[in-house]
Design goal:
It is a single chain. Helices cover 82% and strands 0% of the residues. It is mainly α. It has two domains: 1-179, Growth Hormone, Chain: A (Up-down Bundle); 196-387, Growth Hormone, Chain: A. Helix 5 packs across helix 15 (321-351) and helix 15 packs antiparallel against helix 16 (355-389).
Length: 403
Amino acid sequence: MPLALLALAIGAFGIGTTEFVIMGVLPEVAGDFGVSIPTAGLLVSGYALGVVLGAPLLTVLGTRVSRKKMLMFLMGLFVVGNTLSALAPSFGVMLAGRVVASLAHGAFFGIGSVVAAGLVAPEKKASAISLMFTGLTVANVVGVPLGTYIGQAAGWRVTFAAVAVLGVAGLLGVARLVPETGRPESASVRTELAAFRNAQVWIAMAMTVLGFGGVFAAVTYITPMMTEVAGYSAGAVTWLLVLFGAGMFLGNLVGGRFADRALMPMLFTALGALSLTLLLFTATAHHKVLAAITLTLVGALGFATVPPLQKWVLDQASAAPTLASAANIGAFNLGNALAAWLGGVVISAGFGYTSPNWVGALLTGSALLLSFLAAFLDRRTRSAGRVVTGSAPADSAPVPARR
């Protein structure tokens, strides 16, 4: 695999760290600014909203420059946002810094997916995408726990300063290792938007919203589930999240490898197994060992869907994939927000801390049904194409056109 993928993975590591580390230092941030924990939670939801809005907006603006230059700009924006957060004199400025950093998130992964896929042979595209996303999964195993520890030991500002340094490393890596391919000749707002005329692109993004959203329905409320139901101490949650991150890391690599061999069968398997695992989580959450094993499986199966979902979008929007790719990253975050809200609704309704698991199972099961629909439509389109191509005998004379 090209070294350019390492640069993309470094950028992904920084982005993944800043996205999730705020959850580990939220009480410290709230205490320093004198706001409540729910108010400080705007730093999480504000980031997610920035990803959803920033992904298509910055990708459209980026059609005027080369993908390498756009990636460098996005990493620079990421550095500015985290530096602003580290130096923020007030909560409002801190929130602004989070939003600025989030604007780079969706566009970086969207454009980065296109660049990663273009660096390798067609039969290795999903693997290349998964290697870029490896940076995001490693962030959950190493970056987030380490950032949380630094924030609790030396202050949360040091954490965000360190993340900004990671952004500088990612920027330098892109500048040095990613090849300059020039601005794509077909790149324009009109051609990028034309990809959304394909119903398969919308079906693919709906699969992303529902499929990966099922993971966040459970994980958003993992702390009360593990402490109140499974019986773990609050201090053990950090290590449980490391297990979850380790599952994400392995699932991402496996998903990329097998998606290159058989994309839709891999997606069917991952979504079906994830839905079943989330459903079982409502029972296994009552047992410490089984709860830890199930949480790891949720991480593995959840991220096993990421490379095939992203590759499927690229395939369906192959003529102009950049905006569709970035919009699909926004779809991941939209699914996260939707699932977290639905999980909160069932908990508030009195169904208990395990109820988000069956909500997640329903969401993921819905994504599985959509994947069957997508595969059926794809087969029908291919069959129609073969019929049209082979409708006239090779030696038949062309029919003169009427004038």
